[in-house]
Each structure stands twice: as structure tokens, then as C-alpha cells.
Amino acid sequence: MEFDDELATESLDESNAKSALEKLQSTRKHVIYCYVVNYHLCFLFFQEDRKTLPIYPYRDELLKAINEHQVFPCYI
Fold first, then answer.
1. Which of left, alpha, beta for 70 (phi over 0: left; psi -120 to 50: alpha)?
2. 15 in a domain, yes or no?
3. Who's near 62: CB < 8 A, 6+ residues apart?
């Protein structure tokens, strides 16, 4: 009788451990998903917000000028 109780307790502990592990893995996936969604939303927000800056219409011209007229530091 005592042996059966120990076996049942071990089985219950193992079942609880598996259940806890599954919950932890599910929670971890959910947290990662939330981080990815949050990152994507922030990225989209900053993309749209950047377009409201006064210099934005000149962005391509400015980047082209910077690329064509790069100054390299010369140390003496």
C-alpha cells in the first residue's frame, strides 16, 4: 500500500512538472511574441514620425551630397 502511494505521488509530481514546463514555454513564447510586435510597432511609428520632420523632403539629396563629399580625417 505504501509503495503505491509513493508511486502515485511521484507520478503526480512528474505530471505537475511537465505541466509547469509547458506553461513556462507557452509564457516564454508569448513574451517573445510581445517583444517582436512591440519592436515592429515602434519601428513603424518612427518611420511615420520621421516623415513629419522639416528636413525629410530633402533626405535623398542630403544623403547623396554626404556620400559624394565625404571628408576623411587626416592625422598629422
1. beta
2. yes
3. 55
Distance between CA 35 and CA 48 in Å, rounded?
Answer: 20
42-75 residue pLDDT tens:
999 999 999 999 999 999 999 999 999 988 877 7
Mean pLDDT of 20-32: 88
Tell the residue number behind the cell numbers 512528474, with chain if given.
14
Domain that holds residue 36: 2-68
Does 73 reside within a domain? no
> Which pLDDT does position 40 carry in this prediction?
93
CA dist 16 and 45 (Å) reads 43
The type of residue at 59 is R
The residue assigned the cell 508511486 is: 7
* Residue 39, number of CB atoms within 10 A of its CB: 10
